Amino acid sequence: MRCRRAAAGGAAVLAVTALTSCSDGDKPAKVAPTTAGTPASPAPTATAAATHPFTGGTAGLRNPVLAVKIENTRPAMPQSGVKSADIVYVEQVEGGETRLMAVFSSHLPKKVGPVRSARISDLHLLPQFGRPAFAFSGVQSKMKKYVRKAPVEDISQDNGGSAYYRGNNAAPPYNLYADPHDLLKQAPKAQGPRDVGFRFGPAPEGGTPVKTASAKWPAANMAFTWSAKEKRWLASWGGRPDMAREGGRLGGRTVVLQYAKTTRSKFHDFLGSYTPLIKTTGTGRATVLRDGKSYSAKWSRPSEDKGTTFTTTAGAPMTFATGQVWIVLLNDGKPYIP
After folding, report:
1. Domain named DUF3048: which ranges (predicted)?
2. pTM of the entire structure?
């Protein structure tokens, strides 16, 4: 699938406006299957175990997990279904553009899309969810064997049958949508939610009041602006409000700008642009946005079958606000221009 080529220059950076002023290679790790609902690591308290590990809420505690790849460029907007996701990952792809992976469990929208193709970094992220259902439009032929070995229920367009359909709002490939309920009918073995490392609760001490935080890639940029009225961070894309097709603005109660080393994988598109490989295991730095404040944090993920934990720079748990979480993956280090 074609992405726009990046202009020279540009980096994954964070700009904050104050109110007062994977594994080392392309091959994903093999993960042994687990039982539905079994956490990757014990929740710290009985209270935490009674809430959804993705949102901190009480809805959908036993619902299966569905991950969907969604286009994140201008021709695809406004997108459908993202507003209902528990977790939204933003990943760099070829040409310096980005693509979303929306993870659902608490709630399912009526439709989701535009659905696009998977990338190798997805297969490094997904093992922490156990064995989720994974919906996407396809992959290049060299990557198919990795999808077959991955701990996912493959409900791509090739396997999803009538769950996928073409809309009349745009030209292909930006008009492929799916019905999440029908998708999950094709994945009866998809597992329920498990601990992915998030901790929810009152905000930790400290933090800097901020109005806006922005994230940039070589050919894309997003921003998140705090809305005291809605008590969440409202997303923008390319300098414009990032709207939901269902109405209203996209955005989350918690936004994590996670810095992870990004290198070139062995995969590339038909234009010759190499697919980025985002290393989401190990440790690194992050900026966590919640309740109108910015917190400097650290992230840690020991292996691909474990979740990612976040702590403050003082070592205390970096708690999230209850509700939708955005994980915005940015390159740590020098600019990565594919």
Report:
1. 62-190, 218-327
2. 0.87
Between CA 307 and CA 198 the distance in angstroms is 8
CA distance 144 to 125: 17
Bond preceding residue 276 cis, omega within 30 of 0: no
> Does residue 163 sit in helix, strand or coil?
helix
Q: Which class in CATH covers the domain with range 14-30+57-331?
A: alpha beta
Could you tell me where the beta strands, DSSP code E, fall in the chain? 14-18, 66-71, 87-92, 98-104, 133-135, 153-154, 164-166, 176-178, 208-217, 220-227, 232-237, 240-241, 251-252, 254-260, 262-268, 274-278, 282-290, 293-301, 309-312, 325-331
pLDDT confidence bin for 7, thresholds 50/70/90 = very low
Among candidates 207, 237, 241, which has minimal Cα distance to 227?
Answer: 241
Q: Are 318 and 80 in contact (CB under 8 A)?
A: no
Q: Please tell me the distance from the alpha carbon of residue 152 to that of residue 60, in angstroms, as a whole number.
A: 20
Residue 11 neighbours by CB under 8 Å, 6+ apart: 216, 218, 331, 334, 335, 336
50-107 confidence digits (pLDDT tens):
899 999 999 999 999 999 999 999 999 999 999 999 999 999 998 899 999 999 999 9
Q: Helix H segments across the chain?
A: 46-49, 120-125, 144-149, 180-185
Copy the structure tokens of residue 237. Answer: 């894309």
Among all chains, which residue has been given the structure tokens 């469990």?
105
232: its two tokens: 């969440």
| Cα 270 to Cα 1, 94, 102, 267, distances in angstroms | 8, 10, 25, 10
CA–CA separation, 227 and 238 (whole Å): 19
**Dist CA 171 CA 324 (whole Å):** 30
CA distance 103 to 117: 15
